[in-house]
Amino acid sequence: MNSHFPESNNPIKFYRFEASGHCHRVQLMTSLLDLPYEIIELNRDGSNRPDDYLETSPFGQVPVIDDNGVKLADSNAILVYLVKKYKDGHAWLPESAEQAARTQRWLSIAAGELASGPAAARFSNLYKVEIDFEAVEKKTHALLGMINNTLSQHDFLIGDEITIADIACYTYVAHAPEGDISLESYANIKAWLAKIEAMPRFVAMKKS
């Protein structure tokens, strides 16, 4: 177990939807940091949310964590919290101004282009929501091309060491085929996914 996690503490409560890539990135980070956590599966209609859930997540979104009284929403914010509080000797969030800024750029991409590209295509397929697939597909392949080019220069998105940038972007890229987006022409992306999946304590998201 992570040496920075007090033995007297309860496991981190992790409120999620199983099929959510936003939730999976938090579960993956928690597992890679070797932190104890308790999954609390929420209904998509929110019918089993705790009474005070909206105080932490005003829009009713997942994921939310409760780390022994520290309650946080937003998957990328949670990633930052976890790696800052439970440092394990790896620079998940680089200290230098330049590398920290580059990491933040990828977190913004995860919340923007990734969410409106491959995540949107997958969501449409899973829940039969009508979208302009041609536009989403075009946006997704532009993003994947950029990621693939970035990964031609180094092993991970920021450099040759994995960071939270990779964790934030991994799930929706890995599951892009569930939105009818092929990864076959992106050799660097496929190699990057394999590197992440080979990490100790990696946990996969269930295929939909």
From TrEMBL:
<protein>
    <submittedName>
        <fullName>Glutathione S-transferase</fullName>
    </submittedName>
</protein>
<dbReference type="InterPro" id="IPR004045">
    <property type="entry name" value="Glutathione_S-Trfase_N"/>
</dbReference>
<feature type="domain" description="GST C-terminal">
    <location>
        <begin position="96"/>
        <end position="208"/>
    </location>
</feature>
<feature type="domain" description="GST N-terminal">
    <location>
        <begin position="10"/>
        <end position="90"/>
    </location>
</feature>
<dbReference type="InterPro" id="IPR010987">
    <property type="entry name" value="Glutathione-S-Trfase_C-like"/>
</dbReference>
<dbReference type="InterPro" id="IPR036282">
    <property type="entry name" value="Glutathione-S-Trfase_C_sf"/>
</dbReference>
<dbReference type="InterPro" id="IPR036249">
    <property type="entry name" value="Thioredoxin-like_sf"/>
</dbReference>
<dbReference type="InterPro" id="IPR040079">
    <property type="entry name" value="Glutathione_S-Trfase"/>
</dbReference>
<dbReference type="InterPro" id="IPR004046">
    <property type="entry name" value="GST_C"/>
</dbReference>
<dbReference type="Pfam" id="PF13417">
    <property type="entry name" value="GST_N_3"/>
</dbReference>
<dbReference type="Pfam" id="PF00043">
    <property type="entry name" value="GST_C"/>
</dbReference>
<keyword id="KW-0808">Transferase</keyword>
<dbReference type="GO" id="GO:0016740">
    <property type="term" value="F:transferase activity"/>
</dbReference>
